[in-house]
Write a structure and sequence with these properties.
It is a single chain. About 10% of the residues have low confidence. The protein is mostly beta strands. The chain folds into 3 domains: about 40 residues, Ribbon (Laminin); about 90 residues, Beta Barrel (Plasminogen Kringle 4), CATH 2.40.20.10; about 240 residues, Beta Barrel (Thrombin, subunit H). The longest helix is centred in the last third of the chain and has 11 residues. The chain has 6 helices and 21 strands.
Length: about 425
């Protein structure tokens, strides 16, 4: 007599696992040692090396226990992602739901379905234990100078939707995390503001980020990072030599004026940050850009208005539009508080604005086939409010000031 079909027929459990039905559409696999996982698919040798780009194992669950979608899932394609057009055949993708790392992230990941939303997460797969390599003396590799500015890592990514667009590795390589700790303490540093790497030893940020901090001894910057709460192999942590706030910086209850600062980093021989595919500089702008142009903001969401609830563990980005200065000076928007040291960008209907980025972080626009830092996140009226777009320091207004201070040190851009 043929056994009726159910959750355990055919047996979904691998490696001789025993299937037990747990009601409609649910089952549990009792896995023989040393196998584990929802379907006993994870063996003792199922691990990844380095960042897992070469991983070809069978793990198909996320850290939180979500089952991965097949890479050719119609639901992924419907949501605007297309792994097969984004990645090469050598990246291990196929008509399966095994975890992979096709875009050079820190470890294997996968898509999963969360209600009607496409999400992603890192996978429940461990890093292989590797024997300690024998250390042999060798000459230190010279630090690399930055060859050009405004050129991100060539795109090799899927838009991973997770309450916003997660920045893939190398997409915003000039993004800086400005970190501080309590004055003269041994407490850990924490992310407080964003910034833009404009040269190996120079970061552009907001004046209020510096004035509201403890001092350069209790300040550091991290470049090449995607996360603020874990150590990453791509990240470089650099101490601060000097911070320079614009001499005409001024705060009022309504606005912040000339809200710009330079941070000079500590280095050797004029080299501080080392150029990699994850660390590059943004260009300074060459003249004005047209109103209505679409630009991009990125960061971890640390702004003066939103700091308590919007600091995110992973760097995100969003698109905003440059708004006409006269329009932004209308009484229902910002009125007479704006001056020519500022510009507005965002959406007048609300939604996305600088709370999606960081105070001090970059407003990046396209100019002359390069990415330029056109604005520095400064202030606004709450987050995503109608008729209250983000306000930015207008970088073109400060080009002479930037160049004077940089050339005085002899460490040029």
């Amino acid at each position: 007599m043929q056994e009726p079909e159910g959750q355990c027929n055919p047996n979904p459990c691998l490696n001789n696992g025993v299937c037990e039905e747990k009601g409609k559409r649910k089952f549990k696999c009792d896995c023989p040692k040393p196998f584990k996982g929802k379907k006993c698919q994870k063996g003792p040798s199922d691990c990844y090396v380095d960042n897992g780009e070469s991983y070809r194992g069978n793990v198909s669950e996320t850290d939180d226990g979500h089952e991965c979608l097949y890479w050719n899932s119609h639901f992924i394609l419907e949501s605007g992602a297309d792994p097969f057009n984004s990645f090469e055949d050598s990246d291990g993708l196929g008509p399966h739901n095994f975890c992979r790392n096709p875009d050079g992230d820190k470890m294997p990941w996968c898509f999963f379905r969360q209600g009607r939303r496409l999400s992603w997460d890192y996978c429940d797969v461990t890093k292989c234990l590797q024997p300690a390599a024998e250390v042999t003396p060798s000459a230190a590799a010279p630090l690399q100078q930055f060859t050009t500015c405004g050129q991100p890592q060539p795109k090799k990514n899927v838009a991973r939707i997770f309450g916003g667009l997660k920045v893939p590795p190398g997409a915003a390589p000039w993004q800086v995390s400005l970190q501080v700790r309590p004055k003269s303490s041994n407490k850990p540093f924490s992310h407080t503001c964003g910034g833009t790497l404009i040269a190996s030893c120079w970061v552009l940020t907001a004046g209020h980020c510096i004035l509201h901090s403890a001092g350069t001894k209790d300040m550091q910057v991290v470049v090449g990072a995607l996360s603020t709460n874990i150590e990453e192999a791509t990240a470089q942590t650099i101490q601060v030599e000097e911070a320079i706030v614009h001499e005409n910086y001024r705060e009022t209850p309504a606005a912040v004026y000339n809200d710009i600062a330079l941070v000079r980093l500590k280095g050797t021989g004029g080299v501080c940050a080392n150029e990699t595919q994850f660390v590059k500089t943004a260009c300074l702008p060459d003249g004005q850009l047209p109103d209505g142009m679409e630009c991009k903001i990125s960061g971890w969401g640390a702004t003066e208005d939103c700091k308590a609830t919007y600091i995110l563990s992973h760097n995100k980005n969003a698109n905003v539009m440059l708004i006409n200065q006269e329009k932004c000076s209308e009484p229902k928007i910002y009125g007479t508080v704006l001056d020519n040291s500022m510009l507005c960008a965002g959406h007048l209907l609300g939604g996305v604005d600088s709370c999606q980025g960081d105070s001090g972080g970059p407003l990046i626009c396209d100019q002359n086939n390069a990415k330029v830092v056109y604005g520095v996140v400064s202030w606004g009226d709450q987050c995503g409010k109608k008729n209250k777009p983000g306000v930015y320091a207008r970088v073109t207004r400060f080009l002479d000031w930037i160049n004077i201070h940089i050339t005085q040190t002899g460490i040029a851009i």
